[in-house]
Amino acid sequence: DAPAGEPFDVRLAVAAPRLERSLTVPGPRAERARHVIMVVLRGARLDRFLPRLSPRFTGGFATMVREGVAAEVTTGAVRAWAALQTAATGIAADQHGLQEPTDLLSDEAPTLGTVLAEHPIQTAAYTDEAAWIGSGADRGYGRREGCPEAQPLCRVGPMFQSIADGLSANRGSSFTLLVTRVGTIPLDPPNDLVLALDPVPFEGTLTPAQTGVLAARARTTEIRLEPRDRARLDVLYDASLLAVDRGLALLIERLQAHRLDDSTLLLVVGDRGVALADGRYLGDAPIWRPEILSTVLLARGPGIPRGARLRGVVGTLDAAATALDALGVPIPEEFEGVSILEPERLMERALPLVATPRGELGLRFGAWLALPRPAPQAGVSLYDLTAAQRDADLGDANPIARLFAEARITSLRGDVGRRSYARSTRALPAPAPPR
Fold this sequence. Notes:
alpha/beta, 15 strands, globular
């Protein structure tokens, strides 16, 4: 404690760091899933789900929160495309190396599709994210359905309908993946969903196309929206997510009608959040900001306790590990996620690493961020993220601004279309048997 008005230092010390390998063998679990449906929801903001679900979502989201688990998860990458591929493949960003939509995943890299193809499990992948098909992350799926080339922005609603229609046709075990971009900017929700949330004619200037224009402008200058435009932006965003809310409601209704409710695990995971005129940001933003760093994981089905709260450190790549675990498929060593069906393992994990656009790595715990001090200084600096979030104008005097002032997340790179994958170097060897 420091006397009022006097400066003081806050330091983080780590004593005797070491790596340990757990030798605990989990016992058999009674409940397994025959079917897993996993939805990767790009740009899923945590504040729409936790601490309370938005009242605008009364369909599938409400059912999953009420009858399953809702958890805050940490995004797995600095860049938006890398975060998507981490959530959709279950491979950490430093392994898959996919930073831009032009990057291709190497053929030697495993995916959920290729891992499941080695077992008698039917697989299918659907997406309205045009660049995901053909990226290499879609390898191994028995069926793939994406946007037609002439229609780069297609609707996710018919894809939910196709998944629902195929539920009764799966005789054995199955895994279905849906990757949707509805939470990303430019926002382009169907007009009927916009009217469902706001039936009053809008007399402002913010259109779906302009959300993309403003997001591009936010990379180089400060964005200030009028209150009515901010309200309209929220409506456009929530109307976009409403397509997924209704699609999940349709899936749950069909599962119950075909008596598959007790044997189907339904997963929804965000890749990361999106900025909606938070501070000066719109769309993309530095990863330290809470609206970007944290997203949501929803789970409902076999092995998921009703209304439970996950404790420990949870990440976006845990969804893929959970899907494999639920189907009884061994999780490959390349998949660094932890199944939420084994919640005790979540408590064994380290604090989440946070990467900045400048390539610095820090530890995040709650509302605090610990970053190593630049050379020639030594030690660790501790920053209060909530205090930085309240500061709308991040001036040069703000220490967070000095570390994260790089708001332009994009980078120029000439190696377009490169193939990328590197095996993990973080796996610990098994301990030597006692002599």
